[in-house]
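Lecture notes, continued. The same structure-token format from the folding unit now serves as the input rather than the output. Read the line below as a description of shape only.
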């Protein structure tokens, strides 16, 4: 399990490992979803699953841009079969360049996506 730091929050290395783990799981989950399912909203939701993935990818891209000190830019709108890869790539950018706060925020984004799918 995670090793808490002095304030009881997960240690930065644990956050990085958990983000890497859940990001890979969610990207694979999205990649394996039938396109018809990606194009529909989950029962009780207002947006299609693919849109939730796109929003999460954009949030991750913004975190990576902030971490790298570059301007934020809008991600291209990929076809349904590409949104899982877009999520994986933007998440990898945060893992590569994000500080502890960015990693924690990215983990929140991916966990929220998991709940929405």
């Amino acid at each position: 399990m995670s090793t808490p730091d002095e304030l009881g929050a997960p240690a930065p290395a644990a956050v990085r490992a958990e983000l890497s783990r859940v990001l890979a799981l969610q990207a694979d989950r999205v990649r394996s979803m039938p396109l018809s399912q990606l194009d529909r909203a989950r029962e009780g939701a207002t947006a299609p699953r693919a849109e939730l993935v796109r929003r999460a990818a954009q949030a991750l891209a913004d975190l990576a841009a902030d971490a790298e000190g570059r301007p934020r830019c809008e991600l291209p709108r990929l076809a349904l079969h590409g949104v899982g890869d877009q999520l994986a790539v933007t998440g990898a950018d945060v893992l590569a360049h994000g500080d502890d706060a960015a990693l924690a925020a990215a983990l929140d984004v991916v966990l929220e996506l998991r709940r929405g799918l």
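Point for the exam: The radius of gyration is 14 Å.
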